């Protein structure tokens, strides 16, 4: 399930926030209210937003000052800001908005269709960026998993050879004890021949295991079991 983008609405007038929510509800994203610049900065500390709709004229910290704080923070500097203003002081006022870091500047009363279309563009960009980040992280994890699996596979033969060598050593020890016992008891020829055959097989297995050790220069064929 695709996670919804968050849109921050900043305005000191509740009726303006209500109007923005009515306009943007059709986008089916998460709308977060902030009634002041300070409240907006607090929300930006914990949540990621696709776009910020920021009123210029607010008591205390106005929109320009709020935008300046947003752009100074590494976490939030790249979030697009759309300034909303009920006054128009000409080109200088508009330039100040863009200089503060706004990507767009809309005067009230604004066209709901235009505002929704502009916000929709930034939401789409945000969602695509999130998908790219997820894909990059997934690729990183896959590569890390492949490297780890490769490392584990490289350890498996060494561990297996060590276990086989230890088991073979135990059999070699038992075979040696058996050969000494047969010599001491002057056993019959068939028993001696069987012990000798076992020792030859063990010797062949030992050579094969030694050839499989790293740096041995290749693997030797295991002896036949005849």
From TrEMBL:
<feature type="modified residue" description="4-aspartylphosphate">
    <location>
        <position position="55"/>
    </location>
</feature>
<feature type="domain" description="Response regulatory">
    <location>
        <begin position="6"/>
        <end position="123"/>
    </location>
</feature>
<dbReference type="Pfam" id="PF00072">
    <property type="entry name" value="Response_reg"/>
</dbReference>
<dbReference type="InterPro" id="IPR011006">
    <property type="entry name" value="CheY-like_superfamily"/>
</dbReference>
<keyword id="KW-0597">Phosphoprotein</keyword>
<dbReference type="InterPro" id="IPR050595">
    <property type="entry name" value="Bact_response_regulator"/>
</dbReference>
<feature type="coiled-coil region">
    <location>
        <begin position="161"/>
        <end position="188"/>
    </location>
</feature>
<keyword id="KW-0175">Coiled coil</keyword>
<dbReference type="InterPro" id="IPR001789">
    <property type="entry name" value="Sig_transdc_resp-reg_receiver"/>
</dbReference>
<protein>
    <submittedName>
        <fullName>Response regulator</fullName>
    </submittedName>
</protein>
